[in-house]
Amino acid sequence: MSAKEVKVRNTVLAGGKPTICSAMVGKNQSELIEQAETIVTKKPDVVEWRVDFFENIADADAVVNTASSIRKKLGDLPLIFTIRSIKEGGQEIPLDESGKVELLKKVCETKSTDLIDYEVENDKADIDAIKQAAQQNDVKVILSFHNFNETPSEKEMLNKLEKASAYKADIGKLAVMPNNMSDVLSVLQITQTAHTDLDIPVITMSMGVDGGLTRLVGWKFGSALTFAVGSKSSAPGQIPIEVVRQLEGYLSNDS
Length: 255
Ligand SMILES: O=C1C[C@@](O)(C(=O)O)C[C@@H](O)[C@@H]1O
What we know:
This protein is about 45% helix and about 20% strand. The longest helix is centred in the last third of the chain and has 17 residues, at about 180-195. The protein has one domain: Alpha-Beta Barrel (TIM Barrel), CATH 3.20.20. It is α/β, with parallel strands linked by helices. The chain is globular and about 45 Å long. An eight-stranded parallel β-sheet has the order 9-8-7-6-5-4-3-10. Strands 1-2 form a two-stranded antiparallel sheet. Involved in the third step of the chorismate pathway, which leads to the biosynthesis of aromatic amino acids. Catalyzes the cis-dehydration of 3-dehydroquinate (DHQ) and introduces the first double bond of the aromatic ring to yield 3-dehydroshikimate. Belongs to the type-I 3-dehydroquinase family. Keywords: Amino-acid biosynthesis, Aromatic amino acid biosynthesis, Lyase, Schiff base. InterPro entries: Aldolase_TIM (IPR013785), DHquinase_I (IPR001381), Type-I_3-dehydroquinase (IPR050146).
């Protein structure tokens, strides 16, 4: 397997092949289980739990128990555990950064997830602590960057992905909001550049209605994962999984 591929359970995250993630955004265990059951029927390749939506996030045992109940519903589908910060488009949560880091480490130690998403702009010491707990427990780390207001310059976007690589993330991720179609082209351009030049896989998307096309064709430019709606949307512009899957079929060589 090349350094640009990450294998989690039976899913290979690379670029250049269609791979879909659906998110769960329930506020309690029963909503999450219901969403997991619906999502599984839609056959994504990966599932994300957006834990910032979980009302019991401050109770680490509740989080770990819920992760294990979700895990049972997912069969062999890889799970991404994400606490998106309010700064980068997430929900307000009753945990400060050190509480968040402790929770992420515990989730790694209890092997409750396959991947952790943490933002690349966080303190390097926190990133290193999470990376270490993850590595010891065979959990992969995605270092991500989000901007829900605008699309930074191509140079800045590439810098974020390069930083993820320099910090030894397993995968780099970038989600930004376009204000025009040139912004959408920029995301596709930097996706191709990062896919060619970096030594880790990258996940990219342009959000909103205008960015929607990146969710359909990003993999052709090297994005290793696209987020599509399996039960409920977790970001603007996400398209139902059935639509993404069908189009991917037409764009694949083996169709
Ligand atoms: O980072 C991402 C990407 C995303 O923001 C999107 O635009 O699809 C959705 C989030 O749930 C996920 O954590």
